[in-house]
Specification:
- This protein is mainly beta.
- The protein folds into 2 domains: 84 residues, no CATH class; 72 residues, Immunoglobulin-like.
- Helices cover 0% and strands 51% of the residues.
- It is built from no helices and 16 strands.
- The strands form 5 sheets. Strands 11, 12, 13, 15 and 16 form a 5-stranded antiparallel β-sheet that branches. Strands 2-1-5-8 form a 4-stranded antiparallel β-sheet, with no helix packed on it.
Length: 168
């Protein structure tokens, strides 16, 4: 497997952007993991200063490690995991929301800490569930809705509790 650390940002449109990092390191960068075995990797993230820094640890199976089954199809494993460098004095997330058409919300985090989004409700009805999204510090994330909003306020359940947010 190949191991790498990418800097993780979210652009103004709420899309994830991954950039090779010159300040975060992982070791070893290539590792053979036999079936049933476990391996430890060492990750070194830079100091964050005043604002939290976001990274993704990316593990990818190399082409020479790809297996072909009896049906002639092949599989290649890839895994991406979040990693964060937090400031000495952690801040809170501060969320707001804006409708993008009838099917999306653009969630903006004006705070200095990420928020892991789990569920979004409107007037007691869940409109986005089983989310695996993060609203990174000082960033946007685009969230697809499972059903339309009812009203101008939403309840966003995060890893830091519930956030009641007015929708613009």
């Amino acid at each position: 497997m190949k191991a790498d650390v990418k800097e993780w940002h979210q652009d103004a449109f709420g899309q994830d952007v991954f950039v090779a990092s010159s300040t975060a390191f992982i070791s070893p960068t290539r590792v053979l993991i036999e079936p049933g075995a476990t391996r430890q990797l060492s990750v070194k993230l830079p100091e964050s200063g005043e604002q939290e820094l976001a990274f993704r640890i990316v593990l990818q199976q190399l082409p020479e490690e790809t297996y072909t089954n009896t049906a002639g199809t092949f599989s290649r494993i890839a895994q991406s995991m979040p990693a964060f460098s937090e400031p000495a004095r952690p801040q809170k997330s501060k969320l707001r929301a804006r409708r993008i058409g009838a099917q999306y919300l653009l969630i903006t985090n004006e705070g200095g800490r990420r928020a892991r989004l789990m569920t979004i409700s409107s007037n007691g009805q869940i409109v986005a569930a089983q989310l695996v999204s993060y609203a990174l510090a000082h960033s946007n994330v685009l969230v697809p809705l499972n059903s339309p909003l009812n009203g101008n306020a939403i309840d966003i359940e995060t890893n830091q509790g519930h956030h009641l947010v007015e929708v613009r």
